[in-house]
């Protein structure tokens, strides 16, 4: 599998996601935001976390309109896989690849802690290494992760099974306490209609080694790589 | 030509920053504040002297970048 990690001015998690992809067995290339094309044969595009353009205007607003995003949109329209983590999720929402928006956390605090997520479905390219409704232990670090969408969009996301992850407790129960940023329906991540674009606020790339306290994030990267090794 | 674009949150969209400012004003003893909504103001210089053209350019600026119309409204004033 070939992955392209897009780097914007202010991205800062590209190194971690690159490492996670490599250790799962993917080839990885970094791509600067001013490029007009993705590397030949790109299977997966990753928009990493960070503070692109200093979060000026709105988080992800300027990066969402960067030159390279036309190529990312074309890749997604062809059915190519796109993963946006944290600021990457904000960029996906601002670029129109995913619906809704990430607002300031309801409690106004930057939150940075370990966080369990419930895997809502395990039949996608991103989650097949997990069990359905498994509680995975990853972490969050954001000030604007409060997922908000209009009623109709929310209904469509729920009705079509497009919620990827929800904030949960260690047993996988969806509780108010676990939803620390105030997201609607405890949404931590969503898919596009064709399930080929995933945006999520939490950081699976942080938890890929026992050395740093856990490996639950590995499954996401292993799912992606296994989708391609089987196809090849 | 100069213009001012004002971007505000749509009604019903939760505004935690506005709420925090409202709380701060109350704690400062400023009375009579029933609610605060935070928005953004952009002062823009335009090259054109044609008002219709300026309006079209500003509309494009708002729709493409300045406002996220999922949650925000915008208003354009040309000086």
From TrEMBL, chain B:
Name the Enzyme Commission number(s) assigned to this protein: 6.3.5.3
Q: Which UniProt keywords apply?
A: ATP-binding, Cytoplasm, Ligase, Nucleotide-binding, Purine biosynthesis
One GO biological process this protein is involved in is: 'de novo' IMP biosynthetic process
* Compartment(s): Cytoplasm
Pfam hit, one: PurS
| Catalytic activity line of the entry | N(2)-formyl-N(1)-(5-phospho-beta-D-ribosyl)glycinamide + L-glutamine + ATP + H2O = 2-formamido-N(1)-(5-O-phospho-beta-D-ribosyl)acetamidine + L-glutamate + ADP + phosphate + H(+)
The annotated pathway is: Purine metabolism; IMP biosynthesis via de novo pathway; 5-amino-1-(5-phospho-D-ribosyl)imidazole from N(2)-formyl-N(1)-(5-phospho-D-ribosyl)glycinamide: step 1/2
Q: Name one GO molecular function term.
A: ATP binding
Q: Which GO terms describe its cellular component?
A: cytoplasm
Presence of the UniProt keyword Acetylation in the record: no
Oligomer status and interactors: Part of the FGAM synthase complex composed of 1 PurL, 1 PurQ and 2 PurS subunits.
Q: What PANTHER family does this protein map onto?
A: PHOSPHORIBOSYLFORMYLGLYCINAMIDINE SYNTHASE SUBUNIT PURS
What task does this protein carry out?
A: Part of the phosphoribosylformylglycinamidine synthase complex involved in the purines biosynthetic pathway. Catalyzes the ATP-dependent conversion of formylglycinamide ribonucleotide (FGAR) and glutamine to yield formylglycinamidine ribonucleotide (FGAM) and glutamate. The FGAM synthase complex is composed of three subunits. PurQ produces an ammonia molecule by converting glutamine to glutamate. PurL transfers the ammonia molecule to FGAR to form FGAM in an ATP-dependent manner.
Name this polypeptide is given = Phosphoribosylformylglycinamidine synthase subunit PurS
- The organism named in the record is Microvirga aerilata
């Amino acid at each position: 599998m070939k992955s392209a990690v897009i780097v914007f001015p202010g991205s800062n998690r590209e190194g971690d996601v690159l490492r996670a992809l490599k250790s799962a067995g993917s080839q990885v290339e970094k791509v600067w935001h001013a490029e007009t094309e993705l590397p030949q044969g790109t299977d997966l595009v990753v928009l990493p976390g960070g503070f692109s353009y200093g979060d000026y205007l709105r988080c992800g607003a300027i990066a969402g309109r960067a030159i390279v995003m036309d190529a990312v949109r074309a890749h997604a329209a062809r059915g190519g896989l796109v993963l946006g983590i944290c600021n990457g999720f904000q960029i996906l929402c601002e670029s129109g690849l995913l619906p809704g928006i990430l607002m300031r956390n309801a409690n106004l605090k930057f939150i940075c802690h370990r966080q369990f997520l419930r895997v809502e479905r395990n039949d996608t390219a991103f989650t097949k290494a997990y069990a359905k409704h498994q509680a995975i232990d990853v972490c969050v670090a954001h000030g604007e992760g409060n997922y908000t969408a209009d009623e109709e969009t929310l209904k469509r996301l729920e009705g079509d099974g497009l919620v990827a992850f929800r904030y949960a407790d260690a047993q996988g129960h969806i509780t108010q306490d676990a939803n620390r940023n105030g997201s609607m329906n405890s949404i931590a991540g969503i898919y596009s209609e064709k399930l080929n674009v995933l945006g999520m606020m939490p950081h699976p790339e942080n938890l890929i080694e026992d050395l740093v306290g856990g490996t639950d994030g590995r499954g996401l990267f292993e799912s992606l790589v296994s989708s391609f090794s089987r196809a090849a | 030509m100069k213009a001012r674009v004002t971007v505000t949150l749509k009604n019903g969209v939760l505004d935690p920053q506005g709420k925090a400012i409202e709380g701060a004003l109350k704690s400062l003893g400023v009375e009579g504040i029933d609610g605060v909504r935070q928005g953004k103001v952009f002062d823009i210089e335009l090259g054109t002297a044609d008002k219709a053209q300026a309006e079209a350019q500003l509309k494009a600026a708002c729709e493409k970048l300045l406002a996220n119309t999922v949650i925000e409204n915008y208003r354009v004033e040309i000086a």
